[in-house]
Every structure is written in C-alpha cells, then in structure tokens.
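[Automated response] Your request has been received and processed.

Submitted sequence:
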Amino acid sequence: TYSAEELAAVCVPNPSDAPLAAVGTPSVAEAAALANGGELLVPKRKSAREDGLPAMATCAVVRRPARGRLAVVGLGPGARDLLTPRAKAELRRASVLVGLDQYVDQIRDLLRPGTVILESGLGAEEERARTAVAEARKGQAVALIGSGDAGVYAMASPALAEASDDIEVIGVPGVTAALAAAAILGAPLGHDHVSISLSDLHTPWEVIERRVRAAAEADIVVTFYNPRSRGRDWQLPKALAILAEHREPTTPVGVVRNASRPDESSRLTTLGSLDPATVDMMTVVTVGNTATRDIAGRMVTPRGYRWQGSSLEDAK
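Generated structure:
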C-alpha cells in the first residue's frame, strides 16, 4: 500500500487529472506498478463501462527486475586445494566479481567467460562493499571475495552493513589463517582460544589492549592477526609482555608466515624467546596457554580428557 504522496512522486507515462483531483496523485495503477522499479509492459488500462460512467478499475503491468544475489566468498589461506567446492561454485555462478586485485588474481582462471571483474587495491574496502551491493541491486549475481573466511576481519561485515532485504545474501565460509596455521603447528587450538587483531587502524589500541589482558587473565590460547608492520612495530611486543604477566617464558609460541602458500614458513619457539622483529603482516602468531606443550616439535593444547593426563605429564 502506498500513500498518495508516494505515488505522486513516481514518474509515469500517462498521468491524469481525475485521480489527482480525487485522491491527490496523477496516477494510481502505473505509479503503484512502477514504485519499486521495473519495466512497464502494459500501460494503464481502464475497465470498460457500457453506460459511459467512469471506469470501475484500472491496471498496469510491470516486469520486476531480477532479485540480485550477493555471495560473500572466503577464498581460504591461499592454497587452491583449500578453496572449498562451494566457493568454486559461487565463483563460476557470478556474473560480477568484486575483490582486492591480488585476490582476484588467485582465482581469475575459475571465472566463466564474460564475468565482469571489478577489482581495486588495498584501502578500498568500503568502496568494494558498496560496489558489490550496488551491483546486486541491479539484479546481478555478485561474488565479493576475501581471503580466509570473508566474515573474519574481511568483507562480510562492511557489505552486510550496506545490504538490505531487497537482495539475497549468502555467506560462503573459508579456511582462516588461524586454522591453517594451527594445522601446520600441530593442535594449538585444542581448547578455548581467541583471535585478536593487533592493527589499530580501525580499533583504538586501548580497546585492543583491554582484550589482550582479558585473554591473558582467562588463560586462553591467543592467535594474533596483523601482528606487525613497518609502521606499526610496538604493538606485538606490548601484547607479548601482557601475556608474559600470566604465562611462563617457556610457553610455546607458534609462528607461521604465508600459511599454505608456496613460500610458507613456520617455527615453534617460546614466549620468552620470540623476537618480534622476525614477524610481519603475513604472519600469524599463536601463543599457548599454561597447559600448552611442545610435544615432538608440535604445539599441543590439551582438550582436558582425563585419560590423557598421564601421557601429557610424561611429555613435559
């Protein structure tokens, strides 16, 4: 149902003085049909009256635009065999692909011929989110891509903040950097764990520090994303110092760079021995809790099964 004011604001091909005088809008049928967009197929038609009296009804026919679809797709940590089948299917389905240029290069060969590619560089996240939603509102099948899982420090959040119920939105999960790194290290996430980004680009350091302290006091395994960059080199040492207030220097720490990529590297060290200068933005740092152990060169956080107690004590 539309008000007369709403209908009067719609541009129509056949306005009339009669409804304007009667209800305050120059069109009812055509304006109502066109109010939500679409192509006018049949202009307004009046019901026939043999007695010459005014029509009892009018109608107009509009073809609605196709409902757009936005798939927010996680590409995983980088290795092609860690890209999920569902992600591949969404990439092939897309008529429009939106993404960071370096991520587009990873999957360009999976796109069907004719796919429109809208790529941009670092720092244009807001633009990509808005572009993806705008293309979906045009009726397109859009794939918005992000590394790892697109819902973790990635594009799902800004895109869904822009979207409304006029488009279909689905999320396609991906393997995160934290999970890929954990699999390389052993089983560091065997019990409660948390991921914290040390980048203060979007979050004040005071908030980040409060979260690190909470994790330290709660004895939770911590995975640090965005641990260090050339212009941001003090946050990781500060975070490690906070954890060291509650954990021994011998606490295992796993360091994985470019997990699952050709130049992947990893090492197992300790909280007291880790040199922050060896870490960069492509690195994930996982700090164990007070129960985490180095067992045969693998980082293991016990789940807490009673039957494993003696074997874990022997492994210390």
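Summary generated for your ticket: The chain has three domains: 4-63, 69-175, 178-300. The longest helix spans residues 125-137.
If you did not submit this request, please reply to this message.
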